[in-house]
Description:
Blueprint: H1 2-5, H2 16-25, H3 31-43, H4 49-54, H5 57-63, H6 70-87, H7 91-96, H8 99-108, H9 114-124, H10 134-143, H11 152-163, H12 167-183, H13 201-204
The protein binds a DNA duplex through helix 6 and helix 9.
Amino acid sequence: MLAHYGPQHWWPAETPFEVIVGAVLTQATAWRNVERAINRLKQAGLLDPERLADIEPAVLAGIIRPAGYPQVKASRLRALVGAIRRDFGSVEACLRFEPARLRAWLLSVPGIGPETADSILLYAAGRPYFPVDAYTRRLFLRYGVLSAPRPYEGIRRLVEEALGPDPAVLGEFHALIVAHGKAVCRKRPRCGACPVRAGCKFWAEGVGFEPTMGLSTP
DNA sequence: ATCCGGAAGA
DNA sequence: TCTTCCGGAT
């Protein structure tokens, strides 16, 4: 995948705080829409923990609208920055916290689930945690890494044990899976364009036929 | 017109 | 386990 897609230079953010905001905004959302929302926050000068903590939730919702679920994400963002300030005083102090305990702390914040927590740990704190998303599950199931669905933690540890604890490696792999999942290994796979089909169980079984398994061709 | 996707709550 | 929250992609 690396050979085909090239380095992804993730996470595309200028500051750790921007990573944190992006991690929340990207929940159930394509990254390109998150970019719009982040840019709007920048324009408004709100990409700052202090300002974000003060802003009216309804106003915040209006600004981040392009990322979807504006009401939900506005309150999640505020809950997170509020909790960071309350428990650590600053984003920097938060991210320096011992990784395993930081993970547990993140999961205790309302609106932060395992994938969001691991994205923050990996891309903002530089800790060796692998975020397991929908693309990862789908790819692993099809490719044959997994023969049946497994719980989040199991998949995360599988990857962390296979790739080792280098955050750069874990981060690159996750980014490549996203690129691959969006472009090729979609819900309806484009196996004809797949750079890794040679090793893929789904393709080998002949299920991965190109055009369609029914009607309608794009 | 349908599909897509994290987290929470029922 | 199913539904809700949403805008944007297809």
